[in-house]
Amino acid sequence: MTAFLLELLNKGGYIGIFLLMAAENIFPPIPSEVIMGGAGVLVARGEMTFWMVWVVATAGTVAGNLFWYWIGVRWSEEQLKAIIDRWGRWLTFEWDEFTKARDIFRKYGDGIVFALRFSPILRTIVSLPAGLAHMKLWHFCLFTFLGSGIWNAILIFGGKALEPLIERFEKFAGYGIAAFVLAGVVFYIYRVVTWKPVKEHEAEDRTQL
């Protein structure tokens, strides 16, 4: 599993890393930790350079989040509600998660886009209220780049630090990566199965009032 992942990243090169990181921010099951960790191993082996990996990965993250920002700019909240009600199950977007991100954004402003880059769930969803609020594009790109840049750097350095252990315990490392990917798939399936339509969230809100 480890050899397959590293070969895949090596063959895909920097363009492949860009595309994977963009997809990771659009389609939930793809784990950035595995992508960046593997890239960090390649950096340690001299097959890639840290700065190139960091730049293309962070640019990919910005590109993926721009997709959701663009949707927020283009559609109203009512239209977004209809989209989440129709496609939210497969994107694992819950309506209450969107409203939570929206309320946080309204309370703390543009800077929260940076802070939520470290939140596993809200880091992508916050792009929607940022678009709805017509946050300045360059502000959105800057805060997204800075926040995701820090996170990506941590993951790359983590993969780089673990490279000696991966060489010594390649079989166990492969099991570890497989387990991580499997956990991501299981979590995705769990989110799909337990997903609630918009109307159920609205009914719950009314009962709490």
TrEMBL record:
Membrane-topology annotation of the record: Multi-pass membrane protein
Entry superkingdom: Bacteria
VTT domain sequence ranges: 30-159
A Gene Ontology cellular-component term: plasma membrane
UniProt keyword Transmembrane helix present: yes
Keywords, comma-separated and alphabetical: Cell membrane, Membrane, Transmembrane, Transmembrane helix
Residue ranges crossing the lipid bilayer per the database entry: 12-30, 50-71, 137-157, 172-190
Subcellular location: Cell membrane
The keyword Membrane is annotated on this UniProt entry: yes
PANTHER family: ALKALINE PHOSPHATASE LIKE PROTEIN, UNDECAPRENYL PHOSPHATE TRANSPORTER A
Protein name: VTT domain-containing protein
Organism, scientific name: Erythrobacter neustonensis
